């Protein structure tokens, strides 16, 4: 089979069994045909292949005893989460040509990790040869040795055999990252108290470690990082959160970027406070935009008609009256109004009544000679929203 391209991050390996004789074009046709529209435009295989985010799908198949057996390889330059989704989509294929078929994903290979392993092995061979010639030694050789040694320090920790650095047990504080490549990058830069979760399902080992040690979650600056952080906060005792710069992955960060991200880590309590504040601001902004939309609609409909409209907290119309009757209606009525939109001038008298009746907003053509506006009444003129 053809090797994946240089841009490939992951390689999906799958097995196929078909109850009949099928050939390579049948399998490829089934893959594209039966996944079309399944995952939306962003993960459509044809579009991904056009843009180079999915490489050429390789199929090797042979028939024996009236059945067909083979393997499928799909090169992916997507991130880990998206690649896993595509792999799962392959397993939904039930027919190839006229035959029923079953596809099972066997593994997802991290192509870059395999390349790094080869690089380390070859680098060690080169170093042994170079050290036989002292005159070739340089600072670069020293750095290569350090990187090779640090990479070799990668261990498998706990029953789940999680990728980790050698200082997990001896350190009071640990760093939790997403995957093996992240651990390797931190080891390469001398950070040894690191361990990976290897997926969005948080291993029991991580949960137990979080009860005994100070834990910093160091995650990618993308949606995948958001998902893992959400899961970690639900099941583990996380103390700090650090993030890679937006759009970047921990495995690709330089030493300077790693140090900066860890220095700027945020305590979990502060993170919750920030999230709640952002949520409140978002809700307030959304409500404000909804109110502005309601005022625009009513203002357009009542313009030049000397009409006032009273709406409730859900912005439903309660009552429509002439502007001349507005003061009388507000003073004598028992309306649970949220806002009043009227084709007239906003006066001090109306503002005072609105404040007393706990009406949150007055919207009119213009603001009159007003001395004081209470904090519980929002004033909006039509020219502000036009």
Features:
386 residues, alpha/beta, Alpha-Beta Plaits, Dna Topoisomerase Vi A Subunit, Chain: A, domain 2, Cytidine Deaminase, domain 2, 3 domains, 5-stranded antiparallel beta sheet, disordered N terminus
Structure in a nutshell:
With about 375 residues, this protein is of the alpha/beta class.
Kindly describe this structure.
- The chain contains 13 helices and 19 strands.
- With 386 residues, it is α/β, with parallel strands linked by helices.
- The protein has 3 domains: 101 residues, Ribonuclease P, Pop5 subunit (Alpha-Beta Plaits), CATH 3.30.70; 120 residues, Dna Topoisomerase Vi A Subunit, Chain: A, domain 2 (3-Layer(aba) Sandwich), CATH 3.40.1360; 100 residues, Cytidine Deaminase, domain 2 (3-Layer(aba) Sandwich), CATH 3.40.140.
- The strands form 5 sheets. A 5-stranded antiparallel β-sheet has the order 2-3-1-5-4. It has a 5-stranded mixed β-sheet with strand order 9-8-10-11-12, sandwiched between helices. It has a 5-stranded mixed β-sheet with strand order 14-13-15-17-19, sandwiched between helices.
């Amino acid at each position: 089979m053809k090797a994946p391209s240089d841009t490939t991050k992951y390689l999906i390996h799958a097995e196929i069994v078909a109850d009949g004789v099928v050939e390579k074009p049948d399998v490829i046709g089934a893959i594209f045909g039966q996944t079309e529209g399944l995952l939306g435009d962003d993960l459509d295989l044809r579009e991904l292949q056009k843009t180079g985010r999915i490489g050429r799908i390789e199929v090797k198949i042979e028939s024996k005893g009236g059945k067909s057996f083979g393997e499928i390889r799909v090169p992916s330059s997507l991130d880990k989460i998206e690649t896993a989704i595509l792999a799962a989509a392959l397993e939904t294929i039930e027919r190839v040509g006229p035959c029923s078929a079953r596809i099972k994903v066997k593994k997802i290979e991290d192509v870059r990790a395999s390349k790094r392993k080869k690089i380390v092995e070859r680098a060690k061979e080169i170093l042994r040869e170079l050290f036989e010639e002292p005159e070739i030694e340089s600072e670069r050789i020293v750095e290569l040795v350090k990187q090779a040694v640090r990479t070799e320090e990668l261990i498998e920790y706990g029953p789940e055999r999680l990728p980790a650095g050698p200082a997990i047990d001896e350190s009071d504080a640990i760093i939790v990252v997403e995957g093996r490549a992240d651990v390797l990058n931190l080891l390469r830069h001398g950070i040894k108290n690191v361990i990976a979760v290897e997926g969005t399902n948080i291993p029991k080992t991580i949960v137990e470690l979080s009860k005994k040690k100070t834990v910093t979650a160091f995650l990618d600056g993308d949606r995948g990082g958001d998902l893992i952080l959400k899961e970690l906060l639900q099941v583990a005792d996380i103390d700090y959160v650090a993030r890679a710069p937006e759009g970047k992955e921990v495995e690709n960060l330089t030493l300077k970027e790693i140090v900066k991200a860890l220095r700027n880590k945020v305590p979990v309590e502060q993170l919750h406070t920030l999230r709640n504040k952002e949520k409140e601001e978002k809700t307030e902004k959304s409500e404000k935009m909804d109110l502005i939309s309601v005022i625009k609609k009513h203002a357009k409909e009542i313009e030049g008609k000397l009409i006032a409209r009273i709406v409730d907290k859900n912005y439903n119309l309660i009552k429509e009256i002439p502007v001349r009757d507005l003061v009388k209606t507000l003073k004598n009525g028992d309306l649970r109004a949220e806002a009043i939109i009227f084709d007239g001038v906003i006066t001090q008298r109306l503002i005072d009544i609105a404040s007393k009746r706990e009406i949150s907003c007055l919207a009119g053509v213009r603001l009159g000679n007003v001395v004081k506006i209470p904090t519980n009444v929002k004033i909006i003129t039509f020219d502000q929203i036009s």
